[in-house]
């Protein structure tokens, strides 16, 4: 395992109330299930999975059919490629955390609608806040533009961007890499540089105290 991957912590969620990260995440998942105002309620909840103490959080777009069936993110063909790329850099899928912006499957695998993204936004924000990753590795253009609206995937993939309390590392979506060998090669190279991106993010976090995403505008300035 990469030595910088673990980010253990117990969180304080209110006055004198301590919760472990798994407890806080389980509570959040139950809140989503109980929120009847959320869109796409006809599909299963695909909350996310992995090690909540990880330094790197992978975020895709929305679950597909297989993910909906198994209630797990990235378990179809894209997921198999993602697992392979993770193992190629010597990590295990169980050592990182994987989720999506939208937590239920849009019908017919269409792109999520703005109201669907808005609906799940407060829950994604809290999920990120609980996990407190050093780096958010976005999978695909959609997820990248959620955090970095001005970014362009072909120009900016494999670069590290500060975004409030976190650093964003845009990656091509594995589904795009399954369609093009050039994209697959670029994705593989960017994966290889992910440990270096985490180290860089850790160095910067030490020298520049992080602010919260809400307080700080996204700076579209790549760091490497
Ligand atoms: N594509 C995504 O963006 N997310 C998944 O969970 C699966 C495929």
Features:
alpha/beta; six-stranded mixed sheet; binds uracil; 224 residues; two-stranded antiparallel ribbon
Which cofactor or ligand species appear?
uracil
| Largest sheet entry | 6 strands, mixed
Q: Give the N-to-C terminal Cα separation.
A: 24 Å
Number of DSSP-assigned strands:
8
Low-confidence stretches: 212-217
Q: What spatial form do the alpha-carbon principal axes imply?
A: globular
Mean model confidence by pLDDT: 90
Can you tell me about this structure?
The chain is of the alpha/beta class and 224 residues long. The protein contains nine helices and eight strands. It has helices spanning 21-34, 65-70, 77-88, 114-131, 141-147, 153-156, 174-179, 181-192, 194-207, and strands spanning 10-14, 17-20, 49-50, 56-60, 97-100, 135-139, 161-163, 166-171. A six-stranded mixed β-sheet has the order 3-5-4-6-8-7, with helices on both faces. Helix 1 packs antiparallel against helix 4 (114-131). The protein is globular. Uracil is lined by residues 60-64, 67, 73-74, 78, 100.
Topology overview:
Layout: E1 10-14, E2 17-20, H1 21-34, E3 49-50, E4 56-60, H2 65-70, H3 77-88, E5 97-100, H4 114-131, E6 135-139, H5 141-147, H6 153-156, E7 161-163, E8 166-171, H7 174-179, H8 181-192, H9 194-207
Parallel strand pairs: 4-5, 4-6, 6-8
Antiparallel strand pairs: 1-2, 3-5, 7-8
The protein binds uracil (URA).
Uracil binds next to loops.
């Amino acid at each position: 395992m990469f030595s910088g991957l673990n980010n253990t912590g117990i969180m304080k969620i209110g006055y004198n109330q301590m919760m472990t990260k798994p407890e806080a995440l389980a509570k959040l998942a139950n809140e989503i299930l109980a929120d009847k105002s959320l869109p796409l309620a006809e599909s299963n909840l695909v909350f996310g999975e992995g090690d909540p103490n990880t330094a790197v959080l992978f975020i895709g777009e929305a679950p597909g059919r297989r993910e909906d069936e198994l209630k797990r993110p990235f378990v179809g063909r894209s997921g198999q490629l993602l697992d392979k790329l993770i193992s190629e850099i010597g990590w295990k899928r169980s050592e990182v955390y994987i989720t999506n912006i939208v937590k239920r499957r849009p019908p017919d695998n269409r792109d999520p609608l703005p109201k669907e993204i808005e609906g799940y936004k407060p829950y994604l924000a809290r999920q990120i806040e609980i996990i407190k990753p050093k780096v958010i590795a976005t999978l695909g253009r959609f997820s990248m533009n959620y955090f970095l609206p001005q970014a362009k995937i072909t120009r900016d993939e494999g670069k590290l961007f500060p975004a409030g309390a976190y650093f964003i590392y845009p990656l091509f979506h594995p589904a795009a890499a399954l369609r093009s060998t050039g994209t697959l090669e670029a994705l593989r190279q960017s994966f290889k540089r992910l440990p270096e991106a985490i180290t860089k993010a850790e160095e910067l976090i030490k020298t520049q105290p992080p602010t919260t995403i809400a307080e700080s505008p996204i700076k579209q300035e790549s760091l490497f």
